[in-house]
Each structure stands twice: as C-alpha cells, then as structure tokens.
Amino acid sequence: MNVILTTVLAVQMLTALIMIGLILMQHGKGADMGAAFGSGGSGSLFGASGSANFMSRATGILAAVFFCCTLALAYFGNASPRASTSVLDNAALVKPAVPAAPATGSAQIPGTSMPAAGNTAVPVPPAVPASGVGQIPTK
C-alpha cells in the first residue's frame, strides 16, 4: 500500500510540473492576430499555429491524469481505519506537568536549604481539570 501511494504521489507531482511548463509555453488567443500581421509572436518553438493542437491536447491529457491521481490519493488516504477518530480522545492521555508550589516562610530566603521546623506539611498540588471526554457533562 505504501508503494502505491508513493508511486501515485510521484506521478501526480511530475504531471503537475509538466503541466505548468506546457501552460507557460502556450501563447494566448490574442497572439494569433499579431502573428498574422508580422509580429514577433510567430517565432515560437512550434510556429504560429502548429503548437495549438499538440500543446492543448497534452495539457488536457495531463490534467486528466492529475485529476485521477488526486482522486486516488484521496481514496487511499481515507481507506485505512484509524484507532482513534477524535483529537479529544488522545488529549486525555497526556497529563500536563504540575507546577511547583511557591516557597513560603524561610524557604524564600536565599542560601537556606532546610525548611523551617514548623513548615513540614507537604503542599498538595491543585487538581488537574478533566480534558477531552471528561469535560462533557453527563445527565
């Protein structure tokens, strides 16, 4: 499956690049009138009107190939089932880091590493709010 996706993607990219080159090489509809009166527009690669049939047909064929490759990539991209279909399901797996409690009492004084004698209580971190499905109220 991976080889097919890589091949289709390579064909799509090459088709797009070749199509861009063909479109830029074509001359507009108004260039024929200038070529008829001796303007410099007739000095193109395939002549004044010889390139119109080949280039327009090649552009159409490349556009059809590009469209088919785009449809194939869209089909193969959605064909494989995913384990989780929601971003909110994955958000509940990651818990944010609990910030450290602010220092109180003698712990605020620089150079002291021992807590005060009366300050032996361990600070309780705040409750982490529910994320994802836990935020949806139940009846």
How many helices? The count is 4
Radius of gyration: 34 Å
Q: What is the overall silhouette?
A: elongated
Secondary-structure-derived class: mainly alpha
Average pLDDT score: 73
Low-confidence stretches: none
Major sheet summary line: none
Strand share of the residues? under 5%
Query: Percentage of helical residues?
Result: 40-55%
The H-and-E topology, N to C, reads as: HHHH
Count of individual beta strands: 0
Distance between the termini: 45 Å
Describe the structure.
InterPro entries: SecG. By secondary structure, this protein is mainly alpha-helical. 47% of the residues lie in helices and 0% in strands. It has 4 helices and no strands. α1 runs antiparallel to α3. The protein is elongated and about 95 Å long.
What's the structural blueprint in terms of helices and strands?
Elements: H1 2-25, H2 31-36, H3 50-79, H4 87-91
Describe, in short, the structure shown.
The protein is mainly alpha-helical and 139 residues long.
Task: Please name the defining characteristics of this protein.
single chain; 139 residues; mainly alpha; elongated
